[in-house]
Design brief:
The protein contains four helices and four strands; from the N terminus they run H-H-E-E-H-E-H-E. It has helices at residues 15-25, 30-39, 58-61, 74-79; strands at 43-46, 51-53, 68-71, 83-84. It folds into two domains: 1-39, no CATH class; 41-93, DNA Methylphosphotriester Repair Domain.
Length: 93
């Protein structure tokens, strides 16, 4: 995953470079993911569906940027009326 400072953390099977390659192959915008981490955004809410996801979730990545709402905590997302994504299950972690 991405550290709080926005950098790719250590990855046991090839280091940060390999983790970056894997995330990019999954369609993750690694630069944006780093921006989210630096801003303290742990969860990505989608206003059009009222779900919140991990920023790497495929469902959340399809959201139009105008519909994205940043959340720092699960509690903050739930208080705003969002429910956890069934695909990435961010509340289960």
């Amino acid at each position: 995953m991405v550290r709080g400072d926005g950098k790719i953390g250590n990855y046991g099977l090839g280091g940060p470079q390999k983790k970056t390659q894997i995330l990019e192959a999954e369609g993750v915008d690694v630069e944006t993911l780093g921006d989210y981490a630096r801003e303290g955004m742990r969860f990505k809410g989608v206003a059009s569906t009222k779900i919140f996801c991990w920023p790497t979730c495929a469902a959340g990545r399809r959201a139009k940027e105008r519909n994205v709402r940043p959340f720092r905590t699960e509690r903050e997302a739930r208080a705003a009326g969002y429910r956890p994504c069934k695909l990435c299950r961010p509340a289960a972690a």
